[in-house]
Amino acid sequence: MTRSVDREDPDRLYIVTGGRSRVDESSIDSVSLIVSECDPTPGMQSEHVKILRMCTGPKAVVEIAAELGLPVSVVKILLCDLLDTGRITARHPSSAAAPTPGPAKTRLPDPTVLKQVLVGLEKL
Amino acid sequence: MDLKSSDQATGAAPLPSTVSNALKIVIVGGFGVGKTTMVRSVSEIRPLSTEEIMTRAGVGIDDAGEVRGKTTTTVAFDFGRITLNDEMVLYLFGAPGQQRFWFLWDRLFSGTLGAVVLVDTRRVQDSWYAIDRLEHHGMPFIVARNDFGGPEHRPEDIREALDLSEDIPLIDCDARDRQSSKKVLITLVNHLYSLSTREHV
């Protein structure tokens, strides 16, 4: 849990991502919920295998990152590969459906969504 | 509703398969102010920790000495989770308020419902920068004063020290206490609700 990429060989992150450093950020949110759509197959990259195994039920991108011990942006690149090949599906947060870039005024969430959040929190 | 201790012991308690919408609330505060404590007191999972890589633009902003010689610079943050109902799950992030963190705001926290600024009254100045950045991002927030048993401060004094306008809720809390932390979240969502109904008329 305390392992940090700071002290890690940068080559590892390079290899894990196949050398890519960018991903279409808007396609995957940090709390997009990922679900496996198939079982791992022989010869698959080990990180892909781990993701498919841990996402038999919905799991947020940040949870996958925490479990893999990899930075969120690296995990997003791995997830893009799996999304492109249909091995996973992603349920994106509806509140972040239309993010406004930069410091523009944040859109306030729908009151009906907030009401549901309140009901859920009261049950805690 | 009390969670079974077995659920809290594992970080891998599964979400209902029907969950389709994840929401975010961010708790911002200086080092040692109780962010992770608050996340832990309300989360259904043991708080998890992850990190994000800094882009070059943010490196060296805080303190050049700190980053010298590193090939990668990251910002770490903790988070927990509350399943709200069969469709919705809330992720609670504890985020450091230091300067370089804000370079990651758009990447990690776009779409966040709102923020809690957790304040230690012995170090009020630690919160100035966070409040300034939240206002810059147009992110609605409330201020929660974590009780460290120090001398009593009148709310109006804290408001003045933080230059906080009257319409932003300010409450006391004990981040270790589940009910108290729950009240903080409810205060935030109520605040968001009143802002939102004003906007969506």
UniProtKB/TrEMBL annotation, chain A:
Record-linked InterPro entries: DUF742
Name of one Pfam family that matches: DUF742
Protein name: DUF742 domain-containing protein
Species, as recorded: Actinoallomurus iriomotensis
TrEMBL record, chain B:
InterPro entries: Gliding_Motility_GTPase (IPR052705), Gpn (IPR004130), P-loop_NTPase (IPR027417)
CDD domains: Ras_like_GTPase
A Pfam family matched in the record: ATP_bind_1
Keywords (A to Z) from UniProt: ATP-binding, GTP-binding, Hydrolase, Nucleotide-binding
GO MF entries: ATP binding; GTP binding; hydrolase activity
Family according to the record: Belongs to the GPN-loop GTPase family.
UniProt name for this protein: ATP-binding protein
Organism field: Actinoallomurus iriomotensis
